[in-house]
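Format is sequence with structure; example below:
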Amino acid sequence: MARWVGALLLCLALSAYWSCGGGGEGEGSGSPKFLYVNNDRSPSNVISAFKVNADGSLTPIAGAPYATGGNGFEPCPDVGSIRAVARTLYATNNQSGNVSAFRINADGTLTLLPSSPYSDPEFPATSGVAASADGKFLFVGVFGGIDVFGVASDGSLTLLLGSPFGVGAGT
């Protein structure tokens, strides 16, 4: 039992995302202010949110956990299943095959975007999420390829024509 709990905690740690908060010019010293964890729960996935204190301890953020509107895949979340782009947090919902988008508020609370979650109706499972360096594109692993979404200024997503893009032999 202890080994299983340790493995689950490792999986959670690997799918966590640090946020420096702020986001304005000159803000964010590189020390994280908030920690978000995609719990990848089934049937109803949630995001845990914590304030990172100066001594490294964590304080749960009011209102957390936040429902993603999708279904995760237990017992171990996907590594890289959560990513922030500017002031928006994206989390994959493996079992329901979509991506949820949250506005990151100044106090660390999350607000689900009205049009969230986003999906490619042809592919029922997601695994991992990454963003381009300029924050204009979000890349989501799907069965047999990579879906590419354009990221709008409000954080909403639009699936790019041609998605998913193949990843090579065996896809």
Q: What stands out?
A: The chain has one helix and 15 strands. Residues 1-16, 20-29 have pLDDT under 50 and may be disordered.
